[in-house]
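Justification of resources, computational component.

The compute hours requested in this renewal are based largely on the per-chain cost of generating structure records like the one below. Each record pairs the submitted sequence with a full structure-token output. That output is archived, and it is also reused by downstream analysis tasks.
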Amino acid sequence: MKEKLTHVVKMVFLALIVFSLVPVLFAQATCSVEPWTTDIATKGDWYFNPIGSPIGVYGGCAYILPNPPVNLVEIPIGQFSYPIGFDVGDPSTWSQLGDSPYNWTSSQIGGLNWYKPDPNYWDEFYSIIPGTPGFSYSVEGTKICMDDPRALTDGTNRKAACYFAGSSPAPSAIDVTLNLLAGSYQLSMYLIDWDTNSRAEVAAVSSDGAYDYIDVINFQNGVYVNFFVHLPTNQAVTLEVTKDVGTINSVISGIFLCSTAQIPIDPNVTEIGYIGDDWATQGNWIGVYGNLGSILCGWNAPTIKTNYPWNSSYDLAAGALLGAYSVDGYVWAWTDILPGCIQYPVFEWGWSDFTATQIGPRQVYYPQQQAWRYACWDDGNERCKPVNGYENFKLYFPEGIYMLSLYAYDYELTPRTTMEYRIYDETGINLLASKQVQEADLDGGVFEIFKVTAPPEGCTIIVQVYNDAGHPSPTLNVLLSGIFVDCLKQTQELCGHTIGFWKTNASKDLGLQRKAYAQVTYLEYLSLLSCVNTNYGPQIGDWSEWGIGGTIDRADLEWALHWLSYGAWNPVTHKWVIPDANDMQTKARGQLLSLLLTKCWYNAQGLPYADAKITIPCHADLGALTISQWINILFWLYNDGIPDVSWDLVYQHVELIADYINNHCAIYNGGIDP
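The structure output for this chain reads:
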């Protein structure tokens, strides 16, 4: 029955109403963003039939539409991080982006064939917003910052780098020879089983017949093995790391020389002894180890995950060890760079080619192509990291008031349960507004609409489309299919007066509440009833039964109180009675009279309540209509009813619509800013 009521009301609206282009926003003294409304009616037909727009138009001043050059390929746009050796102009290097920690998918890597850096994207962009600069935008994908404490640091970046040896076909140990001056030292090796958890090895130190060693296992979290070294003369010290049987190879990531207060047994004899391990420091060696010298093994290897025969230029050495060591045997340098942060691009995706006519309600019109297409931007989180990905759209607004509308739909109807729009200031820290999008709306296609007020100096906001549900389940990625901007003038918020407001004032003016001050005086009330009688009485079929007419006086006010109290005041006996709770006609009359009194009250104030717009949730498909338009619909329902629908249900529908208007605010704008 509700569906039939909605359908019939929509048909009547189409017959009675012509949309007006009235903007809706508030002027603000500072840069601000506020949620405004939701539109599930317009879908992709924003250009020709924006029926759900609160101002009757989308993209009048600017719009941005994703427009990738090919379909079914993730095409990166904007800046992104990449490993050493990567060259966007050399496809032979692209596969590195598929490795950890980048983890691009094969489709995303293939999309590099059409890569567009900032700001030369593939989008269809239009703007007539004046200013220097005028309206502009850029995109930025998910950024994740990592700090794996196991990897050594140079004070700025971390790298999982090492020497390794013992792999087939050259089963040798790692031998590093240090040329040290006479003295006592703590000599430390940092060992980490970065890419497995199964290595086992022996770390040994020797010089001039002195020797000690330690077996190392389960060192995937990193360990320092520390030795006391006393040299009575300048001499060479050898560090040897050998793999255990069954281990793929041996590895070492750092060598550190420290001062020590330990006293040798005999200062005239070379002494070497294992003095303990350290599992806590991990890669954070600076200030703990290496105050005399350090070697970060393989730190400067030219590309990641590539085996290079050892060369001192691949190391990062300092202090007493700089230029004072050599590496023997079949030793290789290797590195896996861990950048402090990884920046991903935004991706453009096309589901289909352009069509001359709209083949589905969610398909978007492209004015410059004069055709329709299914396409989107997405955050690329098919790569499965991070859990909560996002895509950022940085928008600059010159001074003014704007309607910002974001359109999205889930083409595949896959289980994208929710996503969230988070709008930040330029810093990306201060949240200005947010709105969660539900699965049902996303499946059907939905505009989420915000008001943006920019100060004289203009302002930049970051619109973030955020995966609040998380990946991989239940949400694959987040997407957006259009950004629309409309320029607006000063607006006013005009709020309804509840039925309780009018009932209470009538009761006070009739003297039914002693020593009570009425917000609407007796004479003002009679004047408003006269306005209702003159302007709207003739449009109500049974107005003669309402008891209001002719010369408006106290009797008319009593009849008004009768309807406003849902029949609790009897204007014949002049007494309060118990009303009939099931009398839907009386309730409909009460709410409708309250609405008409409010309209006359605003008219008396010189305020354009009649032209202010409001959306009724049960008729969201009609969009935002003016108060006058809603009153016309209510008159039609009240007078003519609906075929095959009981009058009680019709009256209940009238009551509910009028009650919603009476309890909410409508928006008036003086016109679209040219």
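The longest strand covers residues 183-191. The CA atoms of residues 492 and 546 lie 33 Å apart.
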